[in-house]
Amino acid sequence: MSDLLDQPAHALSALIHRRALSCRELMAATLARIAALNPRHNAIVSLRDEGTLLAEAEHFDALLARGEDRGWLHGLPQAIKDMAHAQGLPTTLGSPLQRDAVAAQDGLMVQRMKAAGCIVIGKTNTPEFGLGSHTFNEVFGTTRNAWDPARSAGGSSGGAAVALATRMLAVADGSDFMGSLRNPAGWNHVFGLRPSQGRVPGWPVPDVWVAQLGTEGPMARAVRDLALLLDTQAGADPRLPLSLATTGSFAAGLERADLRGRRIGWLGDLGGHLPMEDGVLAVCEAALRRFEALGCAIEPCTLNHSPAALWRAWCVWRHWLVGARIAPLLTVPGQRERIKPEALWEHDQALRLGANDVMAASLERSEFLQHLLERFGQYDVLALPVAQVWPFEAAWRWPQRIGDVEMDTYHRWMEVVIYATFAGLPALSVPAGFGAAGLPMGLQLIGPPQGEAALLQFGAAYERANAELLARRPPPP
What we know:
By secondary structure, this protein is of the alpha+beta class. It has a single domain (2-470), classed as Amidase signature (AS) enzymes (Alpha-Beta Complex). It contains 15 helices and 15 strands. The chain has helices at 2-5, 9-17, 23-41, 50-65, 108-115, 158-165, 183-187, 223-233, 280-293, 307-326, 341-350, 355-375, 418-423, 452-465, 467-470, and strands spanning 44-45, 77-81, 119-124, 136-137, 141-142, 171-176, 191-194, 215-220, 263-266, 297-300, 381-385, 401-402, 405-406, 427-434, 440-446. The strands form four sheets. It has an eight-stranded mixed sheet, sandwiched between helices. A three-stranded mixed sheet has the order 1-3-2. A two-stranded antiparallel sheet has the order 4-5. A hairpin with a 2-residue loop joins strand 12 (401-402) and strand 13. Helix 8 (223-233) runs antiparallel to helix 14. It starts with a helix and ends in a 7-residue tail after the last helix. The relative contact order is 0.13. The mean pLDDT is 97.
């Protein structure tokens, strides 16, 4: 069954639909793999009862036997990131304050995935409130990197990325505010796609107008799986007025992807603005040479906008949005002492903001988008590393320094991921390769507005040409 779980999700789906593989067989193999590897990596949490899950898989087999096909995910085991609601399971957000909060209904994304046939087996681990690109919390503990359990898995979709890399899941959902679909994908040698703002609408949410920096999206070991899951997750919803309508399929035509003549603008370290650990740029530049071999033109380029000004504006937006999420929890006496200090810092910084601060940051953000649109007149995609450091010690809270540069916030070492988020643009993380210590790194490709289809074409062509690199698996325990 180990070879079976090496298959991508779309191949498992084909086997199930041909009746060459039963849903029960796949569920049994998945649960056995989780039992073998999850104690080492701690990626899957709130796992449901084995007997119940096997019975549900048998029910899905019976449905197919009488001609009832739920969709491409029919009978595929799926664990939902512990930031999203799955009915009957805890939505802890990684916080002890939410330890016993059981979801009364599925969130919109989970509804769509269940409608396509998946069987929800549990949740994937996330840092408290999804804050910080290192998956640890006081409810479930630390998720450990697929390639080296002594190292961070990244985050906040760290549990999802590790579950994919270790073959505990064939495809996974995640979410991305500050690189949370991109960083853990890069650190675990899988693909992650941050969709355009509004592409994958989230419900239920208290605010439908302002809080648009975070978005749910897909992760996978294969680009076709990434596109198929995006097809499932995407689509407008009338309750969310800024959600995007989707026409056609993102998965259609990937096998015909041709990158000849496409232009990639390499942003690198933004002319020295972003401190990088040794080897990060070199591995990403090697990935760019693979794109060059496919016919792409690679050119160094700049943002044409002050990175320092962008960081200041970013922090205002982040303080404002995160602070608003934390504030209701602090109305209960004694809660403040139970919330992680990084979340409290965001909240306390938000208290210092005024309306003029927020509007100035919004104007800065708007101007930045216009600059990026000019860049997309020259380039098809823009490229950056997905992280400025290699996976660090799992016992750390966050890296204090990069080389000689001290990190002044808990997330400054992830500054490289803010640009796609701030402009509301889609970004694809592709596995770039491995450093001297054998740890993975990812390259992020940022696309133009609503440019997911083009990004997936880049990913599909890269995947076909680099099968040997992408087939590398984590070392056995």
